Amino acid sequence: MADTEAEQAPALRDAHQQVLARLEAELDDALLGSAGVHRNLIVRVRRDAWAQVASLAKRALDCDYLSFIAGIDWMPAPLLAEEGSGDTSAPAQPRETTYGVTGSEGRFQVFAHVESTARHFGFTVKTDLDEADPAVDTWVPVYPGADWHERETWEMYGFRFDGHPSLRHLYLPFAFEGHPLRKDFPLLAREVKPWPGLVDVEGMPGEPSSDEEGAVAE
Amino acid sequence: MKVDPRLPTPGGIPEVDIDPMLYRHLAGAAVNVELDTGDMILNLGPQHPATHGTLRLVVRLDGERVIAADPIIGYMHRGYEKLVEYRTYPQITTLINRIDWLSSFANEVPFIFAAEQLMGIEAPPRARYIRTMLTELSRIATFLLFLGEMGLQVGAITPAFYGFRDREYALNLIEAVTGGRFHPNFNRIGGVKDDLPWGWINDCRQSMKKVLDSCDDFENLVAGNPIFEQRTRSIGIVPRELGAAYGVSGSNLRSSGVDWDLRRDGDPYGLVYDELDWKVWTHPDGDSFARYWVRLQETRESARMVLQMLDALPSGPIMAKVPRIIKVPEGEVWVNCENPLGEMGYYIFSKGATGPFRVKIRSASFSNVSILPWLLRGAYVPDVITILASLYFILGDIDR
Description:
The complex is a heterodimer of chains A (about 220) and B (about 400).
Chain A: H1 2-8, H2 14-27, E1 31-37, E2 40-45, H3 50-60, E3 65-73, E4 108-116, E5 121-128, E6 135-137, H4 146-157, E7 160-162, H5 188-192, H6 212-216
Parallel strand pairs in A: 2-5, 6-7
Antiparallel strand pairs in A: 1-2, 3-4, 4-5
Chain B: H1 20-34, E1 40-44, E2 56-62, E3 65-72, H2 80-83, H3 89-96, H4 104-119, H5 125-153, H6 158-178, E4 187-188, E5 191-192, H7 200-223, H8 226-232, H9 240-246, H10 251-254, H11 262-265, H12 288-312, E6 331-339, E7 342-350, E8 358-362, H13 364-369, H14 372-376, H15 381-391, H16 395-399
Antiparallel strand pairs in B: 1-2, 2-3, 4-5, 6-7, 7-8
């Protein structure tokens, strides 16, 4: 236990310090924020520097490996359970909007993680998107593996990646409408039939069958 | 526009007043005179024995040669990233068991670590050893199936039976501890559910010796077979820089000569690999044979690791002290681990509730397969099957 606290005190490793110094020098005021949390470096950059970060990471920082590109919607999650209601079957997410450790300008963000296979470190890059027209430059010319990740993010969040060779559906049917991972997209399975939670627990054989009250009280 | 007279035109029957019989003769004549070799589109899947699931591959062929290949995925998309937002942390482990169903235990581990990192909990040493052992056992089970299956794809039936037989050694051990062959759901935040059953250590020791023996069998039967070598050597070469830029990971990348294994090079979190004596295997070639060979060596290495861990297994509790209702503090964390198929990671955003706000699931097969359009270009049709088999993906791991 004591070890973990001691390890977390210097939040950034040497390699991360070097990456951060280099990014600060190259990006100047396009670097909006940075944080070291849980042995990972997170940097937030301005949207117009997104493509530049990719080529910097690959060519100058040895990060030859693309782990993933994904999106996030910071809108508060739909209300599943009331805080303090005793219902532990679903998470009660807070109602206020927060934006993670490096903050965000608005609702939508894109984040990506790259790693160095030679020097054994990685870092996460984030950028904020415009809510009315969420678009950002593509990473495909630098990391060809960005292709599928950007297609997935495009269909799940509706973020456009300018310069992507073919933004078409990856998982969903071609005629699918809407962006399923946005927080305002309802999970229909839950809308149709509420999560049974503790109510649905069957009694053991030989015990009296659990009616609703009996099962809810643990 | 050139219209092939043999094919019906999209608009229906062509507007030519011609005797159908004569038309057929003309069509035959066109074949004989012109030798028109147009491209052919071949659909592999979505149900195809070589794809281990519902991967559909549309390949455009010029004769036997692939000009372009387009994997079409999503037939098994279950929307885990949405589903986990509606669940609490203990409920989620059940779900993520099903991502890569051949090595379910290894799926749970990084997720549990991510939650433990945010909560500042560390599992006790015995739990860490049990976790590492079961992770390696699921690696053995996954790879032994691959070692047999790969023989099947080049036309040798026997290794497949050996593979299915031998992985039972590992699956039986996992079942004895967790109660489930494929979906253990055994990890808890702060430790593991149960201790090892009585007599398990001896069973495990014997089974690992059998696994080592069967690795020798595979080396002699399959890897040393000249026909197998001819079918796999210099087929489907993944260049190391391109592989990394595509996000190809795990044994597939090590087969291209990249000496990178998250078990050694990543953050250890709670696993005990740094206390063991083992080595990372690489192969310089990057072809299908290299991928087979590296996995064969890694199976052996895993069996040796398990044997070492059995000797060094510490006593003590298997659970740390955790609150009754698990609430994960606000924050975000990225945890990646070396799964049998490659890098498996979870990026968790927590807002302090009993469930995560958003989880990005980074699964290995998704990126491993995304290189296929590049890799299959110029390959011959029979080699497509060996390349698919040697990349070794699980559909649930692609589609999530």
